[in-house]
Amino acid sequence: MLRGNRHVAGWQGASLVAITYVYFLIFAQFAFLKRLSSLGVEGAQLKIVMAAMAIGGILLSLLAPRLNVWSQPNARLRIGLCTSAAAAFLSLLSFGSVAALAESFLIGAGLGLLTVTLVTHLRQWTGSRNPLLLVGLGTGAGYFACNFPPLFTSSPGTQGVVAGLLCLVGVGVSFSVSASTAEEAETERRPTYSFFRVLGCFAALVWLDSAAFFIIQNTPALKAGTWEGSLHLWANGGLHFAAALASVWLLRRKGLSLVLSAAFVALGVACLLLLDPSHAAFASVIYPIGVSLYSVALVAYPSLLAPAASAAERGRMAGWIYAIAGWLGSAMGIGMGQNLGHVPPVFVLGAGCVVLLPWVVKTVRGRQREMVATAVVLLAAFCVEHFVVAVQIPSQLNEVERGRQVYISEGCINCHSQYVRPNTADVLMWGPSESIEDLRREHPPLIGNRRQGPDLAEVGGRRSPLWLRAHFFDPHEVSGGSIMPSYAYLFLDRRGNDLVAYIESLQGSGTVEHVAAERDWHLSASSMAAANAGEGERLYERHCATCHNVNGSTRLIWQANFKRLPPDLRVGPFYYLPPYGPAALRIDRLAQITKFGVAGTDMPGHEYLPDSEIASISLWLTQSNAQLSQNR
Amino acid sequence: MSPYPSAKTIYARTSSPGVAGAAWHSLLWLVIANAIGVLIAVLLLSPSLNKELGEWTYGRWVIVHMNLELYGWSSLPMAAFLFKVYGADRGPLAQWCRPALWVWSTALGVGTLSWLSGQSSGKLFLDWSGYARIYFPLTILALWLLIAAALVSGWNSSDNAGLAARSAKVLGLVLLLVVPFLIYIASSPTLYPAINPDTGGPTGASQLESSLIVVAILLMLPFGLTRRKAERSRTIAIAWVVLAAEMVLCLALGRTDISHHRPAQYLSLGSLLLWLPLTPAYYAAFEWHAATRRWRIAFLCWWSALVLTGWVMFLPGVLDHFKFTDGLVGHSLLAMAGFVSSLLIFVLVELLGEDGWIFNQTWSFYAWNGGVAAYVALMFTAGWREGFDPAFTMAPGSMRNAIYDIRLLVGISLLAASVDWFVWATKLVREPSLDSVTSAQEVTA
Asked: Which long-range contacts (CB under 8 A, 24 or more apart) does A234-239 make?
């Protein structure tokens, strides 16, 4: 039990942990780099300056437990805090590369002294009631504060001042703890892990974290998808805080091994996701979780969980962890980010071996039968599949066949049918219908059972390749509020063109007759009566403006690819309308074009819209055009 | 007072590790599949979120969702049933139940990865292709080997006393051996069932055929789960005779591509209505554990609703209106989440015995069944509208969005109920078995 704990409420320990994290994250790892960049310290010079910080950090991390001067932990902590504060304020001055070197060394040295002293004697400031929770709260609060949008987006100078002032607050906090508070007598006994294994795990995790951080920070596409904008920052802060508390819970209930494993899974997956900028947002959710999970452990292990017999031993452990895992791991991660621009999957695998292998071995030991049975069946399946593939005659697929496979792979069948029901309204909308014999020639028939989008059995006769391509890039824009996801990624390789070729191929022999049937379609009297020009304008904006307005989004993006640039229908010309004639006739023809498109052009139909809406669009177009002619 | 034991009072597991493990694995996949269902519902309301998923867009998740519900949640309780029936959860072979379940779950993991990475056969509900198409049938074969070994090792035990029991089990074993090969063959893209030319969907005959397989399972289940009541009931014999007659009818209908407008099709499918009174009467002829009561009532209610609405929705005019709409999505959910799920839970409660309390929390019972009822009502409403106006879904308006918003909430309710069962099942599998507690007490004494 601790003696003299009546002077310690615990908040002091949490505050000091939070202050240290804020200083390290927002100043040493972030603002100082921006400050150096603004002073023109870049390239090789920057590497040397940052190396000075690492040397300072490593040196003081290792020396701190061995220092005979300032033997009182409180005094040593204050020295560390004051040094860090001084370094933060000094960064506001203009300095050359030599001064930057000294400044950087000072930051590292201050942090080395501060971190090792803090965790070695943490119980002095947390007390013995719930120290683990206080570590979690401090870590979570530290990360949350760093993601607080006004602080995160402020200038490096402001961030330096805040970091320096917080260190001074830390000095004040240290005075609130009575000097009579003595060293803790015993360490909270936990299941013991090999110190070197823990050291290796922390080094791997810090390496991954630093590499991911550097890559995100220096890749605009990734940065935009992860921590740009207040919403992202608030979300990141919240995730960090929640993950820190989760880490406390897991440390208590499941132990260190699981926390480190979970942190690795999160960070490893985040690093793999960052290989593709389209996954940046997904990575931005997982990355902070992984970071906070291990960050709590990084404080809790040397201060509370390590099997140290004395404060001196704990100090030495902390020193090695922060020197090797903290400073060296961080430097290696940043180096990887600088030189490779990504975290190689092989490295993630290697880190996984370091972190997960002992856990896997332990799990396997308790589940030998399960593992053996699974491995046997997996292997048997592998052999059988190998045999099946070997005896099959390899076939070379053409563009359309490959496109069909893309259609199946993407699960298009879950939203689109390919079946025009004969003798129903389907025929005019999606027709003509196909015979069962034709259908059975497909392997398998892709009839589907749900229409959240149009039937595609004959879509090749209704849509041009350009329209299909534009639609796959941005369905919401091209098809007036469509709920279909964008498939732009398919065009990064040949899958997109294959899919377009397949969709284009979807037309039977009755297309000519069907076009004639479309020509025979006319607006009913009831549809005309229900037509509303105001509604027509709204529908035009939703379904037509993207191509037919001069600044329409689809028109601007694809203008070089149209067979003929779509006319601005507010002014005309209307290529497919008779130049003169009764208004009713023009409305009827306009309705046919709106509903079924113009065969052989890029103009699509809007087959699924109710006739009243088609009539409204046609009415509005006719009226607005007539008004324009009068004004002329 | 609740007739069910309080969760807090349970401190030792009475069910076998094999059965408890199968319940845990099936609930794990239910939770995962339901969570994916919620994700899908969110994506339908906010399609822009697809961008955050990279290549794992809506279409791929739907495949995963359906297959995990089908081959995870709906299949693994049957493994528990087979463990019990063939005695694999007792004796020296019991230690192989958990490995068999692991192999099955690994198959689902392999399947999930393959579907998400774009490996698909294009066959709804039989979507096994590439490596997964081999691995999954081998998984079933591994399970078959376990129960076959259990039957052989327990051949002379009291469970297998009598020619009837032995013959039924051997026959069952022979039929089960066909399943993995059937799944492999039926997954082939070159095979496709009979098509209703007026809808593109199944014919009345093929619906009758699949329904009769379900009826056969319903009739067979009680013999593996419990025993008949002491008083003689003719219902059991009548039910089997009716099933046999309907099978003959089904054979007579053949497997041609034929329209639902043909009276022979919808009238023969109407023969299933006989099961509305027969099924409850049949189940009343058996003795059931008290804890199964609410789920037995639930599954019989859902079964009645399914048979009735299934037939009505096949009728000319009705099917033409609802085909390809949310109405049929609602009907599928009625079948899977309503009937199949409540039947499976009923089976699991009976198998778990005193441990069946894990499914009997009142709130989760109502969250699930109320959620399913609400979901079905919503989807029928949406389907009814969609039948008149295809743009109702394709160009969403406020009403469609409101319906889908409520559907999302209902999905969360179903997920919450399944998480509750999974949490309790996790606690249950960690409890020491009653046998081990008793042995320990004996040693101490």
From this structure: A234/A147, A234/A149, A235/A284, A235/A285, A236/A147, A236/A284, A236/A288, A237/A143, A237/A144, A237/A145, A237/A146, A237/A147, A237/A148, A238/A144, A239/A285, A239/A288, A239/A289, A239/A292
Contact (CB<8Å) B51/A422: no
Question: Is residue B83 over pLDDT 70?
Answer: yes
| Cβ contact A411–B135 (<8 Å) | no
Can you tell me whether residue B433 is helix, strand or coil? Answer: strand
Pairwise CA distance, residues B190 & A249, whole Å: 53
What is the mean pLDDT of the segment spanning A146-170?
Answer: 93
Beta-carbon separation of A483 and B44 below 8 A:
yes
pLDDT at residue number B438:
54
The reply to whether residue A281 touches residue B52, judged by beta carbons under 8 angstroms, is yes
Domain ranges of chain B: 7-193
Task: Identify the bridge partners of residue B286 per DSSP, sorted by sequence position.
Answer: B228
**Is residue A566 within 8 Å of residue A603, measured between CB atoms?**
yes
Helix/strand number for chain A, H first, E second:
31, 0
Is ipTM strictly over 0.85?
A: yes
Bridge partners (DSSP) of residue B228 are B286
pLDDT, greater one: B328 or A72:
B328
CA distance A269 to chain B (A): 14
Burial of B165 (0-12, 13-18, 19+ CB in 10 A): middle
- Angstrom CA distances, A257 to A254, A266, A287, A356, A357, stand at 8, 14, 19, 8, 11
Residues 6+ apart with CB under 8 A from A362: A257
Q: Which CATH superfamily is domain B7-193 in?
A: Cytochrome c oxidase-like, subunit I domain (1.20.210.10)
Tell me how far apart the alpha carbons of residues A432 and B276 are, in angstroms, rounded to a whole number: 41
Residues in chain A: 632
- Of B142, B22, B145, B21, give the one whose Cα is nearest residue B79: B22
- Domains belonging to chain A, first-starting first, are 1-177 (1.20.1250.20), 190-366 (1.20.1250), 399-514 (1.10.760.10), 521-631 (1.10.760)
Using a CB-CB cut-off of 8 Å, the residues of chain A touching B96 are 369, 373
pLDDT for residue B150: 95
**DSSP secondary structure of B312-352:** HTTSTTHHHHHTTSHHHHHHHHIIIIIIIHHHHHHHHHHHH
Q: What is the reported pTM?
A: 0.79
Q: Which residue has the tokens 């930057």?
A: A100
Chain B residue at shortest CA distance from A606: B391
As a whole number of angstroms, the distance between CA A595 and CA A527 comes to 13
> What is the C-alpha radius of gyration for chain B, rounded to an integer number of angstroms?
22
Q: Show residues of chain A in contact with B325, CB under 8 Å.
A: 450-451
> Hunting for tokens 């001064």 — which residue is that?
A99
Within A321-344, residue ranges assigned H as helices are 329-340
Per-residue pLDDT reduced to its tens digit, A552-594: 999 999 999 998 899 888 777 788 887 777 878 888 889 999 9
What is the residue-averaged pLDDT of chain B? 91
The string of pLDDT tens digits covering residues B212-241 is: 999 999 999 999 999 999 888 899 999 999
Digit-coded pLDDT (tens) for A606-625: 999 999 999 999 999 888 87
**Which site among A449, A486, A595 would you substitute to test the B interface, given the most B Cβ atoms closer than 10 Å to its Cβ?**
A449
When scoring A376, A392, A409, A441 by the number of chain B Cβ atoms within 10 A, the one with the most, hence best to mutate, is A409
Per the CB < 8 A criterion, the answer to whether A333 and A209 are in contact is: yes
Residue B122, Cβ density class (10 Å: 0-12 exposed, 13-18 middle, ≥19 buried) = buried
